Amino acid sequence: MMAHGTMQRFVDREQAYPAKRSAEERARDFREIADRYDTDTARKQSARCSQCGVPFCSVHCPLHNHIPDWLRLTAEGRVREAYELSNSTSTMPEICGRICPQDRLCEGNCVTEFTGHGAITIGAVEKFITDTAWDEGWVEPLHAGPARGQSVGVIGAGPAGLSGAEYLRAAGYEVHVYDRYDRLGGLLTYGIPSFKLEKYVIDRRIERLREGGIVFHENFEVGRDATLEQLRTRHDAILVATGVYKPRAIRAPGVGSAGVVEALDYLIASNRKSYGDAVPAFDDGRLDAAGKRVVVIGGGDTAMDCVRTAIRQGASSVKCLYRRDRANMPGSQREVGNAEQEGVEFVWLSGPVAFDAEGDDAAGAVTGVRAQRMRLGPPDASGRRAPEPDPGNTFVEPADLVIKALGFDAEDLPVMFDAPELGVTRWGTLLVDRRMMTNLDGVFAAGDIVRGASLVVWAIRDGRDVSETMHDWLKAKAVSDAARERAAA
């Protein structure tokens, strides 16, 4: 039962997010921008929860986390129990607390927000609970269940692959994870900057999985080091969780100019530098924004990561061109606010039509982005108003470095994996049935490679869901294999 008087303090207690470091200070480093709650503040902010009858925060959380329950436990000072409840539905609660767009999910649907008193600060409390659990030693090792004598191969060590691997290992399977990069974590490691997610947060999660007996194969490319078919013969089931890495292209004159780069190339270089790696394309200046006029094209969270990275690298100016207005952009409004505080200028309702470069050489250094002013027409299929050109209204934005952040599509996995029979949709994502299995028996898929570019929290949810259907399928396979062996004997 709820302790009398502990909760529903939203009327007499102001919403208070953890204090952010000043824009001037945080723009000089790659540390996370906000402090963590102390225990007293976490209790007080959790106590603002109205404990409403239908918790829209949980309904709108892809993981359906038990948010009001762990807020109540935190308010009552029962932080270890709050952690255990939070951990029961999520394999990465402190990561979601840092990088989920809470303003679009749990907090954006908070009943207290609707009453005009400001949403409960769910993400900040979620981060506090699990960071405290790590500090206090409450995070349990990954305990593998009784060995089943079956093995699973997971392709991709991003959030979907790691989440699925954890649940399958806990169920007693031998689990091997194959990833093409030299570090694990996928976009958590190489796509998201440290000022949103410091790397030790991911590293300690992966270390826990390694200590739990999951075998990781870094620098392993399916198609180069083994075909999909060879992995199928090596394991009883396969989970494909590669994510989507193919950048969407801009078709415009001058797009091949030197200094026009892909968002992911830029972010990976920056993240590698934070690990202390030698990165030739950064070290020679090509992927370093220092002293440059930077223009980022796009309005999603990747674009926000790029503009805020460029500020920290010491760009002389940073502008973001987006073809819709602020209200119709896909990225987190909080991230836009953080970027503006740090000195980014947004040029709304503008789209690139050409890239100007030095000389006549197609690969000359970029000097500017020729852009077309846009206006918003009627809503498109997604409900957002579609941009259309405003004829005769063009301008040039000077630039020394242009970063294309227009989103990602699926790579051609049937070709990459040397598996032409693997079924894909017209968008290149993997075709799966209700069990999340592809058209190849025992080959499952989860995360962005199924749903298209999406949120980390959805990838974690997919990893959880696919582990259940794989578990059922593997149990049935074990029974039929045993029956076949008996018949053969």
UniProtKB/TrEMBL annotation:
Residues 152-463 form the FAD/NAD(P)-binding domain. InterPro entries: DPD_II (IPR028261), FAD/NAD-bd_sf (IPR036188), FAD/NAD-binding_dom (IPR023753), GltD-like (IPR006006), Helical_ferredxn (IPR009051). Transmembrane segments: none annotated. The keyword Cell division does not apply. GO terms for molecular function: 4 iron, 4 sulfur cluster binding; metal ion binding; oxidoreductase activity. The keyword RNA-binding does not apply. Residues 10-25 have a biased composition (Basic and acidic residues). Residues 26-137 form the Dihydroprymidine dehydrogenase domain. Keywords: 4Fe-4S, Iron, Iron-sulfur, Metal-binding, Oxidoreductase. It holds the Pfam family Fer4_20. Residues 1-25, 375-394 are annotated as: Disordered. This is Glutamate synthase (NADPH) small subunit. It comes from Hephaestia caeni.
